[in-house]
Amino acid sequence: MLLSKNKQFLAEDFSCQRIASYQPFNAVDGEGIRCSVYVSGCLFNCKGCYNKVAQSFKYGELYTEALEEKILTDIGHEGVQGLSLLGGEPFMNTQVCLSLVKKLRERYGLTRDIWIWSGYTYDELCNESEDKQELLSYCDILVDGQFIQELFKPNLAYRGSLNQKIVDVVKSKISGEEVLYSI
Ligand code: SF4
């Protein structure tokens, strides 16, 4: 049974503004070469979670201005396509994620894309708290939905279970309905 969570899991109540890991220049978290930030903390507690240790909001290291500057500098390197935000749950850590995506857009405009992995679905986020909707507004591609072990399938591109979708957020906003991203 999936957790019902509408406007309950507010970042301001839970986030300790920590990250579990930062992986610069990888080629696995989305298309092209990417810089990936794995934030700490997620309340969904999916059975079979691939990153259980990062469910704790206290796990990992504090997100500092120095780390943020390093990430932004890395993203500026030639050949980097964009930023990936994973977790943990990025939308339960909007203080960290909003700070980073806003500065990314200020510095690089639309020359870098933003992919986000979330246990929330696109529809849920469209009706969520203001900070979550704001983070969604910066997102180009959303890999959405909680992990469901019974629907696990190996080798799904960028997803773990069949219920999860790769949503083209930019096209979805334009068309007014959910548009899936074609790989
Ligand atoms: S949403 Fe992701 S990080 Fe959160 S419990 Fe589920 S699998 Fe783990």
From TrEMBL:
Pfam families xref list: Fer4_12 (PF13353)
Keywords of the record: 4Fe-4S, Iron, Iron-sulfur, Metal-binding, Oxidoreductase, S-adenosyl-L-methionine
Single annotated GO MF: [formate-C-acetyltransferase]-activating enzyme activity
InterPro entries: Aldolase_TIM (IPR013785), NrdG (IPR012837), Organic_radical-activating (IPR034457), rSAM (IPR007197), rSAM_sf (IPR058240)
SUPFAM superfamilies: Radical SAM enzymes
Cofactor(s) required for function per UniProt: [4Fe-4S] cluster
UniProt-listed Enzyme Commission number(s): 1.97.1.-
Superkingdom per UniProt: Bacteria
Residue stretches in coiled coil: none
Recorded family membership: Belongs to the organic radical-activating enzymes family.
PANTHER family named among the record's database cross-references: ANAEROBIC RIBONUCLEOSIDE-TRIPHOSPHATE REDUCTASE-ACTIVATING PROTEIN, PYRUVATE FORMATE-LYASE-ACTIVATING ENZYME
Function: Activation of anaerobic ribonucleoside-triphosphate reductase under anaerobic conditions by generation of an organic free radical, using S-adenosylmethionine and reduced flavodoxin as cosubstrates to produce 5'-deoxy-adenosine.
Protein name: Anaerobic ribonucleoside-triphosphate reductase-activating protein
Source species: Brochothrix thermosphacta
